[in-house]
Write a structure and sequence with these properties.
By secondary structure, the protein is mainly α. It has one domain. The chain is 80% helix and 0% strand. Helix 3 (50-57) packs antiparallel against helix 5. The radius of gyration is 15 Å and the shape is globular. The protein starts with 8 loop residues before the first helix and ends with a helix. The relative contact order is 0.21.
Length: 98
């Protein structure tokens, strides 16, 4: 059987960047579906919840990491870890330095 995904860093990095955004959107749909998206974003920014909600979305990276790890796609798993660290630096920046 032909492998659909190849084992490259970007194979994991791109989903690692996009999955937290999907998690952010699912959070919006689950709890604030009655609002418009722009009103929700304004509310989250004014209430200083953007980093917290985005951090919750990073949980999806855990599933992607284990998927790549069980498929023995180590470079792709490293890409997910790299994207997670990128989000971690953003969280630290907004929590500590601002």
């Amino acid at each position: 059987m032909k492998k659909i995904l190849s084992d490259h860093f970007l194979t994991g990095f791109i989903p690692g960047i996009l999955l937290p955004l999907v998690g952010f959107y699912l959070y919006f749909l689950s709890f604030f579906g009655y609002m418009e998206l722009d009103a929700f974003l304004t509310h989250v920014i004014r209430a200083n919840l953007a980093v917290s909600v985005l951090s919750l979305g990073v949980i999806f990276n855990l599933a992607a990491f284990f998927l790549f790890y069980t498929k023995e796609m180590d470079k792709a798993a490293r890409g997910v870890i790299g994207a997670t660290f990128l989000y971690a630096f953003v969280v630290v920046y907004f929590k500590v330095l601002r």
